[in-house]
Amino acid sequence: MNTKPQSPASKKYQAGFSLAETAVAVGIAASVIVTLVGMIPLSLDALRQSSNVAAEARIVQAIAADYRMREWSEVLQQQNSGGSKDYIFDGQGTRVKDGDTSAIFTVRVTVSDAPTLPGMQQTNPRLKSVQMLMTESPNPAAALAKPESCRKAQTLVAQMDKYAVNQPVASN
Length: 172
What we know:
Elements: H1 8-14, H2 19-69, H3 72-81, E1 84-90, E2 95-96, E3 103-113, E4 127-135, H4 140-145, E5 151-158
Antiparallel strand pairs: 1-2, 1-3, 3-4, 4-5
C-alpha cells in the first residue's frame, strides 16, 4: 500500500469553497435581499391603511358618543334645520380645532329619521339616524361635495332624556 502523504499546500486548497459555489451563494442572498427590499413599500402602505382604519373607528365612536350624550332638542334642531356639522380630527382620531396643522380627517355629520326597523310599520320618532361622511383629502370641501369619494358610517341615536307623556299611564 503506497499512499502519498498530502502536502500542506493541497490541504489548504481543499478546505475552502470554490468560485462557483461562492457565486451561487451570493446570487441566492442577493435575490432574497432584493425581494425583501421590494416588500417594504407594500408593508408601509398596509401599515398606513390599518392605522387609518383604526383612527376612523375611533372617530365614529367619538361622534356617536357625542350625539348620544346631547340633549334631544339639539339633535332635533340639527335635523329640522337640515344642516350638517363638520368635525376635524388628527391622524390618531382625536378631535382638533379647525385650522390645526395636525388635522387629517374631516367628518360631515347629518341627522335624519331612522329607517323603519324590522317588525315595525313606521319609524320611531325617538330614534334618529346619524350619518357621517369622512375624508382625509387636503381639500375637504371638494371631497365632501362628492359623497361617493368619502367613507360612510351610520349610527342610531335614541332619545334617552325625559319627555312629556301624552297618554295617561295605567295604574294597578
